[in-house]
Specification:
The structure holds two protein chains of two kinds. By secondary structure, chain A is mainly α. Helix content of chain A is 63%, strand content 0%. In chain A, helix 4 packs antiparallel against helix 5 and helix 5 crosses helix 7. The radius of gyration of chain A is 23 Å and the shape is elongated. In chain B, helix 2 crosses helix 5. The chains are: A mainly alpha, B mainly alpha. Chains A and B meet through helix 2, helix 5, helix 6 and helix 7 of A and helix 2, helix 3, helix 4 and helix 5 of B.
Chain lengths: 271, 106
């Protein structure tokens, strides 16, 4: 269907009631968006993409197991931390766990590409979750031997939650970037309807099938590596043994709430 | 191509039967409004001494907006609660708009 033809149909007088309601809602949302945008502009924020959706709900703080370090606002220091890994590498062992908290914070902010961001995000959460897991287990009098078992799940779930939020925002941003800048509702709608619809969905499918699973396995591998390394240093002073190739895999990474994580702790405590 | 159908806010608002095209467009608009509302609320709740840094960080991370979610907690106490509250409030407001429109139509 050509745009002209679509445009004519779109402006038909015979609008079904549901569409009329949708249009009224659109009018209301547009008007309020303009108002809020005006206020945001007064604060100096322009062209902010929609990165929070109705699916973005948090049952607990986004970093539920750790105390968040303070943000450092010294841009000059960031330049010294630009050498970040370019891709997710399941054999990588250099994690930011030897950095100070300030450095670790900067490490998060210096990422420029999406891949770097994801890589750093996972490392950051894995690193923090290890300490937090130990602390939580100690509070619950659960042996550290349980750490790999429990923490794998916790880290996976935390990281997965972040990955999901990231990908959600990424996809929406992509759609917005590609279409909304046309600044015409009809053209935007026509484009999606006729040409580019599959782009976003194929991206989403690809992420679902490969990327999230790979990411979950990645953090599992590195958590195990980190844990074994730390334990061998602390207890036996024996050189670290490499992580076995058969790291536990996650078949279907899923997002759980902290209530779920607490339930896991309780279950383990009762073992 | 077969695509996954997941319930959206539009399904919650009984607008799930409009065309996928309109759905996508409306969803994008609604999410923009929601984001604007939440960011404004977060800015209001940020301590005065951190507010400008918070705004600068938001601006600096617009191209990779999920990074913003990473540092919200550092600037705003109870950020998650504020976000969740605003999500609920926005949902109610939208439902109210639809209800009013529906009653006018009848």
């Amino acid at each position: 269907m050509e745009f002209k033809e679509y445009n004519q149909q779109h402006h038909s007088e015979n609008i079904p009631p549901l569409d009329l309601i949708a249009r009224k809602l659109h009018d209301h949302v547009s008007a309020e968006t303009k108002e809020t945008q005006t206020i945001l502009t007064e604060h100096g924020i322009r062209d902010l993409p929609a990165f929070i959706t109705f699916d973005t709900t948090f049952d607990t703080p986004i970093t539920p197991l750790v105390e968040a370090p303070l943000v450092v606002e010294e841009e000059v220091h960031q330049e010294s931390h630009m050498s970040t890994p370019n891709s997710v590498d399941t054999t990588r062992t250099e994690l930011p766990n030897e950095s100070t908290e300030d450095e670790r914070e900067l490490y998060v902010f210096t990422a420029t590409s999406q891949q770097q961001l994801q890589d750093e995000m996972l490392s950051y959460y894995m690193d923090n979750a290890l300490e937090a897991t130990k602390k939580t287990l100690a509070q619950k009098n659960i042996s550290e031997d349980r750490i790999p078992q429990v923490a794998q799940q916790i880290i996976t779930e935390i990281a997965q939650k972040k990955i999901n939020a990231f990908h959600d925002a990424q996809i929406r941003h992509l759609i917005k970037q590609n279409f909304l800048k046309q600044d015409a509702e009809d053209y935007y709608t026509w484009r999606i309807n006729n040409a580019d619809m599959d782009i976003s969905f194929s991206l989403e499918k690809d992420i679902e099938n490969n990327h999230a699973l790979h990411s979950a396995n990645f953090i599992n591998d590195h958590f195990m590596s980190l844990f074994l390394q730390e334990r061998s240093i602390e207890e036996n002073n024996i050189p670290h043994q490499e992580m076995p190739d058969t790291a536990p895999s996650i078949q279907e990474p899923s997002v759980h709430t902290s209530a779920h994580i607490n339930a896991m702790f309780d279950e383990l405590k009762n073992l | 191509m077969k695509t996954k159908k997941t319930p959206t806010i539009l399904d919650d608002l009984n607008l799930g039967e409009i065309t996928e095209t309109k759905k996508l467009f409306l969803l994008d608009e609604i999410n923009t409004l929601l984001t604007n509302r939440i960011v404004l609320r977060l800015i209001e709740h940020a301590p005065t001494e951190k507010r400008q840094v918070f705004i600068d960080k938001i601006n600096a991370n617009k191209d990779a907006p999920d990074k913003i979610l990473l540092f919200i907690d550092h600037f705003v106490e109870n950020a998650d609660q504020i976000i969740n509250d605003e999500i609920m409030k926005c949902k109610k407001d939208l439902a109210s708009v639809i209800q009013n429109t529906s009653s006018q139509e009848h």
